[in-house]
UniProtKB/TrEMBL annotation:
Residues annotated as domain Rhodanese: 15-74
InterPro entries xrefs: Rhodanese-like_dom (IPR001763), Rhodanese-like_dom_sf (IPR036873), TSTD1_mml (IPR042457)
Protein name as it appears in the record: Thiosulfate sulfurtransferase/rhodanese-like domain-containing protein 1 isoform X3
Pfam families (alphabetical): Rhodanese
């Protein structure tokens, strides 16, 4: 996915259109593990807020961001 600016329209697509564009199943609003992240944390937080506003109740932000994950796991 390109970024936060594309997220709103992506989450409102029909499932078949989403799969055709992203080669992945569209998440369901009730999915529990819809995790957003970015390098520093701001865009991941914005994406989480946007998804929650669209009814994706399980949307979460990985607060440590990619940088933390990379330092611990990379």
């Amino acid at each position: 996915m390109a970024g936060v600016s594309e997220l709103e329209s992506a989450l409102q697509m029909e499932p078949a259109a989403f799969k055709a564009l992203y080669s992945a199943e569209k998440p369901e609003p009730e999915d529990e593990n819809l995790v957003f992240f970015c390098q520093m944390g701001k865009r991941g937080f914005q994406a989480t807020q946007l998804a929650q506003g669209l009814g994706y109740t399980g949307a979460r932000n990985y607060t440590g961001a990619y940088r933390e994950w990379f330092e611990k796991e990379g």
